[in-house]
Amino acid sequence: MEEKFTFRKIESKEDMMAVFKLRFQVYCKECNFIKESDCPSGFETDELDEHCAHFGAFDQENLLVGGVRLILPSCEKFPIEDHCKGSNVDYNVTPRQQCAEISRLTISKLFRRRANDGLYYEPQTDDQTVEDKGMYFMRRVRPMAFGLYRAMYHESKRIGIDHWFAVMEPKLWMLLKIHGFIFKPIGAPVDFYGMVTPYMVSLTELEQNVYSKFPQFFSYFMENLEPELQPKF
User: What pTM does this model have?
Assistant: First the structure.
């Protein structure tokens, strides 16, 4: 049976605490990226959270099952600036005030139950090919990670963000790439919660690429976005 989720920006304190609790479960207990002793309250949070827009995926009972944050340029340093010293970013070309960094993508273990779901509850390249644009394809990519990415995209359009940073492991980068989200490497791999590579993507280029290669997917990303914010192709 297809799971149905709703995606929204986190606004209430109750939902925000649910995000921190889920992050503790995944990042501390399941993946051991962060020491449990560093989060004695059972909530995973840091100083960057106050500079973020947070987003959640909720199941049919309105329980949080996934989350992600978008670190905004009000922070003193993006993590990519702090941990990827050799990253190649020219703020004369891409103003820092128009950049944000994707961080803490978190999916509940309840929705990572199949052997090939991976950390992000999405098919890998041998699960569905990039050419498959039918309803099965749309059903499989909608459930979790891309719903969160759509919520971040909508918020970015509304507040004037036009470039995203991300540090990613190869599996997530490939997942995004085969669906038209081509993040370009801007530095060498670093050991930051495992080996990851710093990336950057222009939202204008992302829109053009997804529109030309995956029109159904593009339409999904435009759902409920104000017409004046949608790209004119």
Answer: 0.86
Alpha-carbon span 109 to 83, nearest angstrom: 28
Domain count for the chain, please give it: 1
| Assigned domain for 1 exists | no
Q: Name residues whose C-beta falls within 8 Å of residue 76's C-beta, 6 or more positions apart in sequence.
A: none
Note whether residue 232 is domain-resident.
no
Give the three-state DSSP class for 89: coil
Q: Please tell me the distance from the alpha carbon of residue 225 to that of residue 154, in angstroms, as a whole number.
A: 6
pLDDT digit string (tens) for 137-170?
334 444 588 999 999 999 999 999 999 999 998 8
CATH number, position 41: 3.40.630.30
Closest CA to 195 of 158, 215, 167: 167
Domain for residue 220, yes or no? Answer: yes
